[in-house]
Design brief:
Layout (H helix, E strand, L loop, with lengths): L17 H4 L2 H19 L23 E3 L14 H5 L5 E7 L9 E9 L8 H5 L5 E3 L14 E2 L1 H11 L14
Antiparallel strand pairs: 1-4, 2-3, 3-5
The structure holds iron/sulfur cluster (2 copies).
Length: about 180
Amino acid sequence: MRLDDPCIKKLEPPKLNVFERTYLPQIIDGLAVTGRHILGVLRGESITIEYPEQPHRPSPNYRGVHRLNKDEEGRVKCVACMLCATACPVHCIDIIGATAPEGWSDREKYPASFVIDELRCIFCGMCEEACPVDAVELTSFYDLTGLSREEMIFDKTKLLSVYDLTKDSEPSRMGNLTTF
Ligand code: SF4
Ligand code: SF4
């Protein structure tokens, strides 16, 4: 990509006035949030939950464990373009592409192997942003644990199983559908 490419958007930092440059508005905003919480506690409102008995619902844009999406025919959506692995700042995605099986006329390649090291991942969401076919997505799973490092290295089968687990409660974010 060239520097004069019209697709590149240049963002200017916002211009702050003298008052804003003192950071007093931001401090006042912060104190207002704290004040609201204090008033809530005084009114008897709880700001904590009894986890794990009471499940925590993260916000819709929470970035948790990945999944590999499937298409309408139940095939992995990924076309092994490697864009997610290239975009990943910590290089925790490892893909081995192969020629698509016979009959998969809509693509040339598919991932023979697709591995994400969830322990190295910083959950930045760059892979999700980079994917041209919405094949890799982050889910709201936040409490996945493992007893060994190997358990936290997710292969294709495991990533597809996360899709099966979450597809009903979390339709594709990239498809502009609602999340829970
Ligand atoms: S969320 Fe970020 S760090 Fe994790 S695999 Fe995707 S691009 Fe890499
Ligand atoms: S998940 Fe998306 S970006 Fe990554 S290799 Fe597959 S198609 Fe490309």
